[in-house]
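Q: Please design a sequence for this.
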């Protein structure tokens, strides 16, 4: 059993499809179903009974504790986030609340659960934190590509909130030994992408003959 946060969203939903192409191990999804969450993305797996969707907030520690106690996952995959940069500029509060405070509450619940596991399960447990390359800021044309040792330099409330969550995850590993992994991938695109994001927005606007909006001066490099 694995617990996945935010899997009614774009990447988490794709991950669930990918998972069930390779595994029959059941999945519990915790998702708040914000504007970005669409359970239809994973409906076939819900209907098949191998995937359970719980609507709730990662910041609801009592709920997360209950789910962990009930389902006894061997891993937590943390995709849930407020993820749209432009929205973070207009309303940063939700980003701090979900990405930082929510990740903190999730980590606290997972730490307590993990700490009480038998030794073998404890050693095999993983907490995968899905973050972004936006924590590294932006590059000039002559800079080398980002690497895992690039200093953090977030430029938007979104990337700052993700950077904060990365630091919390790192601290839980170093302070408490929680077995964590953090990924800092670049932009993803593909099926089930919410239409506010660059590629689906461009395609939809182009199909409707509307202008193609470019962020800033279009010169940003990551
Ligand atoms: N999309 C990209 O190109 C990209 C690139 C790098 C990193 N990421 C990271 O990958 C992860 C997934 O991104 P995405 O594009 O699928 O995002 P998304 O916005 O499509 O989906 C986020 C999901 O999280 C849920 N959610 C939001 N707040 C929640 C909360 N408080 N509690 C529980 N669920 C909540 C939403 O309902 C939604 O289903 C995020 O952590 C994001 O920062 C995304």
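A: Design:
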């Amino acid at each position: 059993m694995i617990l996945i946060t935010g899997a009614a969203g774009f990447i988490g939903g794709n991950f669930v499809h990918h998972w069930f192409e390779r595994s029959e191990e059941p999945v519990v999804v915790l998702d708040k179903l914000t504007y970005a969450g669409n359970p239809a993305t994973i409906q076939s797996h819900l209907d098949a009974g191998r995937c359970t969707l719980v609507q709730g907030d990662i910041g609801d520690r009592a709920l997360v504790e209950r789910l962990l106690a009930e389902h006894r996952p061997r891993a937590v995959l943390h995709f849930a986030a407020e993820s749209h940069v432009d929205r973070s500029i207009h309303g940063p509060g939700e980003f701090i609340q979900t990405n930082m405070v929510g990740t903190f509450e999730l980590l606290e619940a997972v730490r307590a659960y993990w700490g009480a596991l038998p030794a073998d399960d404890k050693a095999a447990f993983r907490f995968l934190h899905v973050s972004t390359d936006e924590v590294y800021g932006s590059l000039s044309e002559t800079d080398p590509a980002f690497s895992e040792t690039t200093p953090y330099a977030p430029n938007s409330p979104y990337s700052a909130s993700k950077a904060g969550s990365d630091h919390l995850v790192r601290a839980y590993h170093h302070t408490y030994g929680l077995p964590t992994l953090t990924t800092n991938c670049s932009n993803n695109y593909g099926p089930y992408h919410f239409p506010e994001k660059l590629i689906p927005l461009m395609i939809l606007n182009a199909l409707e003959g509307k202008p193609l909006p470019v962020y800033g001066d279009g010169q940003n490099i990551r």
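Q: Thanks. Anything notable?
A: Strands lie at 2-5, 27-31, 51-55, 75-78, 126-132, 180-185. The first strand starts at residue 2 and ends at 5.
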